[in-house]
């Protein structure tokens, strides 16, 4: 088991940040309700353009890119499956909470499409629920996946006139909790098993852990300022740590061979070509693999919770097509979705936060975790967009 790109360097532990306030809450907290915060997606052809405008407002995404992305949605009738996934996730969370004797209501609101976070916050407050513990459907640290949700919360509270009434806290980034990692590990194990059955040797197989590319400027600022995780920041470091952990675990269990190589690749780049984004691109790497003696590739959607458009189009369509063109056998492994281990881990995270479980007792499978409860100053900041107020962290 070797990583073929940059090594997962020695990284400081998330608990070592030396800024004001503890990274993990140490006093139990009372909450009235859970807030499931999603990305949102269109649910009909007429939603597609307004949705894309919402996502890209103020981002300098070229029109050609928007038109191209619109065709991905149009191909599926203008419907992204992501809202349906969140309905299912919400139902699964309610069920898991109920089984554990927890009767919290779960409100669901999105950043970019109906039902919006603003409406969820209004509805919660109307029902007398003003202390909300949020779970955002994004596992890693970066502006898009962490801080932007905190800004969404601050805006939702302010725009609804509920500042000082509603409070939203957010559970820690969960890239390395067992129930998030397990479904990916199972997918890699199944792919390796299938490739071995086809008579392929370990060195003929490549595992590509795929995640959303982001601007390198955002990546450098992902996670708390003082951690100094280097190029790619906390975002890349967290993905690499999870990939390494999956391969180590499978090697120990005899499901992967020491010679099975893996790497982290990126997908779904947007932005102007002049702006650097994280590389290499998944399709570019696939095209290079035959020259490295590779005959089969497993594409693992490590950055995503469910089979939404990024997975259906950019991986199942584009990456698998690139593999076919390169003459490679290829498979795309599952996302966590509503896998019971994942749902159960989310409820564990809600419970651990409510009970202020000490960090040393919190489940985590990489050296980087357990990640912070309370985002540090400057965490995942976005210098292009400038400062915007954010809830659920230490100011600024
Ligand atoms: C890190 C990350 C995640 C993973 C974490 C998470 O899950 O949050 C993610 C998820 C998603 N991204 C999604 C869709 C889009 N993302 C876009 C644009 C962008 N994504 C970015 C980053 C991320 N995105 C960035 C830096 C941009 C550039 C504009 C900006 O700075 O914000 C655009 C605009 C067009 C384009 O350029 O592609 C679209 C339509 C959907 C919904 C899919 C569906 O509908 O099924 C999901 C789950
Ligand atoms: Fe995105």
From TrEMBL:
CDD domains: Ferrochelatase_C, Ferrochelatase_N. Its EC number is 4.99.1.9. Fe(2+) binds at residues 212, 310. Fe-coproporphyrin III binds at residues 80, 149. The keyword Metal-binding applies. Its main location: cytoplasm. InterPro entries: Ferrochelatase, Ferrochelatase_C, Ferrochelatase_N. It holds the Pfam family Ferrochelatase. Residues 1-26 are annotated as: Disordered. SUPFAM superfamilies: Chelatase. GO terms for molecular function: ferrochelatase activity; metal ion binding. Signal peptide: none annotated. One of its GO terms (cellular component) is cytoplasm. Involved in coproporphyrin-dependent heme b biosynthesis. Catalyzes the insertion of ferrous iron into coproporphyrin III to form Fe-coproporphyrin III. This is Coproporphyrin III ferrochelatase. It comes from Nesterenkonia natronophila.
């Amino acid at each position: 088991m070797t990583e073929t790109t940059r090594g997962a360097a020695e990284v400081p532990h998330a608990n070592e940040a030396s800024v004001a306030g503890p990274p993990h809450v140490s006093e139990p907290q009372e909450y009235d309700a859970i807030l499931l915060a999603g990305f949102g997606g269109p649910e009909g052809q007429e939603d597609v353009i307004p949705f894309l405008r919402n996502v890209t407002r103020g981002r300098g995404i070229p029109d050609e890119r928007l038109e191209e992305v619109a065709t991905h949605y149009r191909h599926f009738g203008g419907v992204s499956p992501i809202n349906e996934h969140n309905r299912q996730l919400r139902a699964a969370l309610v069920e898991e909470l109920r089984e554990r004797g927890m009767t919290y209501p779960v409100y669901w609101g999105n950043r970019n499409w109906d039902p919006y976070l603003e409406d969820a916050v209004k509805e919660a407050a109307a029902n007398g629920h003003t202390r909300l513990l949020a779970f955002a459907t994004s596992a890693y640290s970066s502006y898009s996946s962490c801080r932007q949700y905190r800004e969404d919360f601050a805006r939702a509270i302010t725009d609804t006139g509920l500042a000082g009434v509603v409070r939203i806290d957010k559970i820690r980034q969960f890239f390395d909790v067992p129930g998030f990692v397990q479904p990916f590990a199972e997918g890699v194990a199944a792919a390796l098993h299938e490739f071995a059955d086809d008579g392929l040797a370990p060195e003929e197989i490549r595992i590509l852990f795929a995640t959303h590319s982001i601007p390198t400027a955002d990546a450098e600022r992902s996670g708390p300022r003082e951690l100094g995780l280097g190029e790619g920041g906390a975002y890349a470091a967290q993905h690499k740590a999870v990939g390494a952990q999956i391969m180590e675990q499978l090697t120990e269990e005899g499901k992967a061979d020491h010679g099975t190589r893996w790497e982290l690749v990126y997908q779904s780049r947007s932005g102007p070509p002049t702006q650097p984004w994280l590389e290499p691109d998944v399709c570019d790497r696939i095209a290079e693999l035959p020259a490295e003696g590779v005959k089969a590739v497993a594409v693992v959607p490590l950055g995503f919770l469910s089979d939404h458009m990024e997975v259906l189009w950019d991986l199942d369509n584009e990456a698998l097509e690139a593999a076919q063109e390169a003459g490679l056998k290829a498979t795309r492994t599952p996302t966590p979705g509503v896998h019971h281990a994942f749902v159960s881990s989310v409820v564990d995270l809600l419970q651990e936060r409510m009970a202020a479980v000490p960090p040393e007792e919190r489940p985590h499978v990489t050296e980087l975790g357990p990640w912070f409860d309370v985002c540090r100053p400057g965490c995942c900041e976005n210098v292009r967009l400038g400062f915007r107020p954010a809830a659920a962290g230490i100011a600024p």
